[in-house]
Amino acid sequence: MISVEAVTKGTDLGYLDMLDAAKVLEEHKNDDNFKENIEALTRVLRISEKADLKAGESNVDPKLFDNESEQKMYDAVEDVRKAAADHTINENFQALQALRPLIDNYLIKL
After folding, report:
1. Are the C-beta atoms of residues 81 and 48 closer than 8 Å to each other?
2. Which of 2, 26, 50, 78 is deepest in the core (most CB within 10 A)?
3. Which of 46, 108, 99 shows the shortest CA–CA distance to 73?
4. What is the pTM of this model?
């Protein structure tokens, strides 16, 4: 079973949404590349924890990006963020998984 911390840490989801998120992770835990996708997302979350971000706000200034990989990842994350409210938790999970190539490319450029 997926750990409670994996679903609840740093979230403002309600109880039922947290249960749904846990179910989605449990359903996908045996997927090809699940571990690698979660590790990539976790690395980005750890980097973002260092930023002074408030829920729903972004203090990112794209003009300060050093390379194209930063812009591509920012654009993709913004697309996922803006669409998240209109999608199911499973659809959001799929969208986050789709970010992995961009995350990998970004981290290589660091």
Report:
1. no
2. 2
3. 99
4. 0.74
